[in-house]
Structures are given as structure tokens and as C-alpha cells.
Amino acid sequence: MSKKQENIQQVLKKIELMLLSMNYGSITLVVHDEHVVQIEKNEKIRLHK
Fold first, then answer.
1. What is the per-residue pLDDT across 9-48, written as a single tens digit (0 to 9) for each?
2. Which terminus of the chain faces fewer neighbouring Cβ atoms within 10 Å, N or C?
3. One Pfam annotation, family name (predicted)?
4. How many CA atoms lie within 13 A of 25 on its CB side?
5. CA nearest to 29, candidates 18, 41, 20, 21
6. Residue 7 sits in which domain range?
7. Any alpha helices (H) in 1-49, and if so which ranges?
């Protein structure tokens, strides 16, 4: 498996864990030289009255 494929597999696992733990928000990937180098998670918390 190439380094690029390993990077993609690692990123997909991290994203899956993030998605399982959030209800509202966004996930942003930062790519540099064909590799994901950063994953940003912005989670929103909804307050009910």
C-alpha cells in the first residue's frame, strides 16, 4: 500500500470517529502535496429553551 493510500485510510478512520461523536457541525480537511495534513472539527451545540 502506498503512503498516499495509508494516509487516506487513516483520515477516513479519524473522520468516522468524529462523525460518530457529533450532532451538528462541520469537518474540514487541509491537503498539502496530495496528503491530508490537518483535520478540523467545528461542532455546534444547540441549546433548547
1. 999 999 999 999 999 999 999 999 989 999 999 999 888 8
2. C
3. DUF2292
4. 16
5. 41
6. 3-43
7. 3-20
